[in-house]
Structures are given as C-alpha cells and as structure tokens.
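Reading a protein record of the kind used here takes little practice once its layout is understood. Each number in the token line that follows is a code from a learned vocabulary of backbone shapes. One such record is shown here in full, so that the layout can be seen directly:
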Amino acid sequence: MVKIIASFLLGAVSVTALLWHSASSLMFSERVSPFGVEETVARIQENMQNAGNGWSLSGLRNAAKPIQKDGGNVLPVLMVEGCSTRYSGPILKDDNLRFLSILMPCKVSVYKKNDGKVYIATMNAALIGRLFGAKVGGIMANVANDQAKFLEFDASKPAPKMIEGTPGAGGPGAGSGADGGC
C-alpha cells in the first residue's frame, strides 16, 4: 500500500513539474523575424488591417520608452495592438465573460534581444480560449487563425510605413477607423 501511495505522489509531482516547466512555451510563442523591429511592426500592422473579420489597429506601444525616460538603457520593445469587434463583441456583451476584457486588445510584441535578432511574441489564443469554455474557445480559435495571418510576411513586397500612435485617437495613424480600443 505504501508503494502505491508513493508511486502516486511521485507521478503527481512529476506531472506538476512537467506542466510548470512547459507552461510558458504552451501559453506563449516566440519566433525570430526576418526583418528589423520597425519593418516587422509595419508588416504586422498591414497584415492586421488586411486580415478581414473586423480587425483594426488599436495602437502601438513602446514598452521600452518609460524605462529609457528613467535613464535606463533597454533594447526596443514595441507592441502592436489590434481588435476585432466580431470577436470582442460577443465577449464584451456577456456579463459572465466581460472580465476577459483584460485580454483585449490582441497584442503582438516585437523586440530585439542582445543576440542582435528581432523576435515576435504572441499569446496562444486558442489554448487560452479553451480554458474558458466552448463559446470563448471558439472565438479565440478564430483569433488564433487570424493571428497566424498577421505573421505571414512576403519579403518580395516592399515594406509598408509603420503607423505610430493610437489610430483614431487624433495622433499619427488617425482616421484608420479604429476607436483606439476594443
């Protein structure tokens, strides 16, 4: 009987350790970009605007800027933010799901590391969605499919111009039809 309990506990600890170790790679994805930071951002922005399904740009955040203002030296970190009312609407209209607004807008992070390469990070929207039931799971599966389109780059096409600021908020990029949020 002691061997059975010990085996069960060892198995539970092993599974917990495995999940703990692999959770970040399941929840988030990181890949190298073939372009520089600004060109990567510009291509993602263009792809997001052309993805259909109600997607529009919500903003571009420079996560490194506050650190630089405080005198810190940090490599570039830009976050492209976009929203689709087709996907956000059903969640924001439901009182029981509105707390998921914390995940909005959809973000794609583009940053440089000390190895000199530019990286793109995304959240695994499909996996996160499944954690909240069938309705959210279905919506987030669609978000994940569109998110994959945001990251398809055609190197034979010239780079578009990066849209800075918050579209629709009066700054650069205003007039794109976005309200600056989701």
Summary: The longest helix spans residues 2-27. The chain is about 40% helix and 20% strand. The helical segments are 2-27, 37-50, 65-69, 85-92, 125-130, 134-150. Confidence is low (pLDDT under 50) at residues 168-178.
